[in-house]
Amino acid sequence: MGSLQDQISMLTVFALPMAGGAILAYGLYQLWYDLRKPEQKRLQQRLREQTFVQLPKEKSSHASILRKSLGQQKKWADVLLSKYGLVQKIQKSFSQAGVEWSASRFLINTCSMGMLVVLLSMAASVSAIVAVGLGVLVPVGPMMFISHKGKARRKKLNYQLPDVFDLLCQALRAGHSLAAGIQLIGQQLPDPAGIEFRRCFHEQNLGIKLEEALRNMADRVNVLDVSFFVTAVTVQRQTGGDLAEILDKISKVIRDRIKILGQVKALTAEGRMSGWVLSALPILVFFVAKALNPEYVDILLHEPDGQALLGAAVVMQIMGMLMIKKIVNIKI
């Protein structure tokens, strides 16, 4: 047993410098690539996002403009990983969060860093379970941050939609076309509404039909009210009607929903605060007991029965947090 541990230790000693050197070289290459021609890099990244998320193969022939432009720009990581559904979902999450990252590069970087963390943890005599857990946190942590940022961006966009529709109604009643109104929104409103409508306008400038560009935007932002807007525009362009009046009604519905949502948040504030207190109290008591009486808490950490009880407590605590969140999260 001791000889096996010695062999693992020797392998770790030789593997760590090699892995560290490889990751350092790759990181320096990524830094050089990010600093080289930032405008061209942003254009390539935008085209790469379109191929991952927005351009189904059965769409019109105009959609091939972006694919042909990207065909000579793809890197080996994108070619190797783009066919997997997980990479496409991660790329869509980046697009919804407004982050100009490449999903393939993100997976390669985080997995490499996770492996390095596992090796360093094992070299520091950390248990295998803890080392693997720390390695898993490397890709999971950024994805949780991206998910939170995406939710915040969708919420901000939802609050911007009444102003978006009011400005578009004014443009239509002034005699502008729908495309000109979309361009005006992209120029006048801040992000995220501004950048999404600018992207929609640029897509139709490249030759994609306006309805298709709007559907791409709805898929990209994943906001229900934007889908209503796209559906209303598609039906109006097929059957006719007063689009400005339709947008006025949609804007009024969204404003009423935002008002009701504020009232619901005010009424459920006590429940949400109770959830935070009940979630933080056991953790606080644990650390206070650890500081005041370490022998009392060490039974939970080192004894098998104590570890089982501690694991059960953590599971029940998570279940309680999810139940409280489900109760106070009322959808409007």
Low-pLDDT stretches are 49-73
Output the number of helix runs.
Answer: 15
Biggest beta sheet attributes:
none
Order of helices and strands: HHHHHHHHHHHHHHH
Strand content: under 5%
- The residue fraction in helices comes out at over 70%
Ends distance:
61 Å
Oligomeric category: single chain
Number of domains: 3
Taking Cα atoms only, what radius of gyration do you get, to the nearest Å?
26 Å
What structural class do the secondary elements suggest? mainly alpha
Overall mean pLDDT: 78
According to DSSP, the number of beta strands is: 0
**Shape, principal axes of CA atoms:** flat
Can you give keywords for this protein?
mainly alpha, 332 residues, Receptor-associated Protein, 3 domains, 15 helices
Quick overview:
The protein has 3 domains: 2-151, no CATH class; 152-255, Type II secretion system (T2SS), domain F (Receptor-associated Protein, Up-down Bundle), CATH 1.20.81.30; 268-328, no CATH class. Helix 6 (103-123) runs antiparallel to helix 7, helix 7 (128-173) packs across helix 8 (178-188) and helix 9 packs antiparallel against helix 10.
Can you offer a commentary on this structure?
It is built from 15 helices and no strands. Helices cover 84% and strands 0% of the residues. The termini are far apart. The protein folds into three domains: 2-151, no CATH class; 152-255, Receptor-associated Protein; 268-328, no CATH class. The protein is an all-alpha fold and 332 residues long.
